[in-house]
Design a protein that fits this description.
Elements (H helix, E strand, L loop, with lengths): L21 E12 L2 H8 L8 H14 L1 H4 L8 E11 L2 E12 L4 H19 L7 E11 L6 E2 L4
Antiparallel strand pairs: 1-3, 1-4, 2-3, 4-5
Helix pairs in contact: 2-4
Organism: Anaerococcus porci
Keywords: Lyase, Molybdenum cofactor biosynthesis
EC number: 4.6.1.17
């Protein structure tokens, strides 16, 4: 049974009032494929809009904090920590977002939303230089806490 549907089949926010507070953590990851010239311009801080990675980091943090305003059934959360990391491998720029809280519901959506906004910001800032960029493979790497327990993506 889908927990986000009422008796009429309409969407609703899950009632978490009876759940126990526990330490929650989620790590999400994604990448954007870039041309060599774009990677060099980012690294050399030659993008006219500014420091791409610094601005994308702030965008990712803002997105994590505002997930419940973007994802309709996500609960507003009191977050304990957000860590955003960008790194290059070959023609890809990777974004990883780790989110922590003590709460009654998980932070997977917050981590995934942070990665998405971080990568979209890279796209926005570099689109004048490279319109062929491709955002790829945004996924949950791991989660800790909650009723369903820990999860770690296989094959990574």
């Amino acid at each position: 049974m889908f927990t986000h549907l009422d008796k009429s089949g309409r969407g609703q926010m899950v009632d978490i009032s009876q759940k126990e507070i526990s330490q929650r953590e989620a790590l999400a990851k994604g990448s954007i494929k870039l041309k060599y010239e774009t990677i060099k311009a980012i690294k050399d801080e030659k993008i006219k809009k500014g420091d791409v990675l610094a601005i994308a980091q702030v965008a990712a943090i803002q997105a994590v904090k505002n997930t419940s305003s973007i994802i309709p059934m996500a609960h507003p959360l009191l977050l304990n920590g957000i860590n955003v990391d960008f790194y290059f491998e070959g023609e890809n720029l990777f974004c990883e977002v780790l989110v922590k809280c003590q709460g009654k519901t998980g932070v997977e959506m917050e981590a995934l939303t942070g990665v998405s906004a971080g990568l979209l910001t890279v796209y926005d800032m570099c689109k004048a230089l490279d319109k062929s960029m491709v955002i790829e493979d945004i996924y949950l790497v791991s989660k800790k806490g909650g009723k369903s327990g820990d999860y770690k993506r296989e094959g990574l």
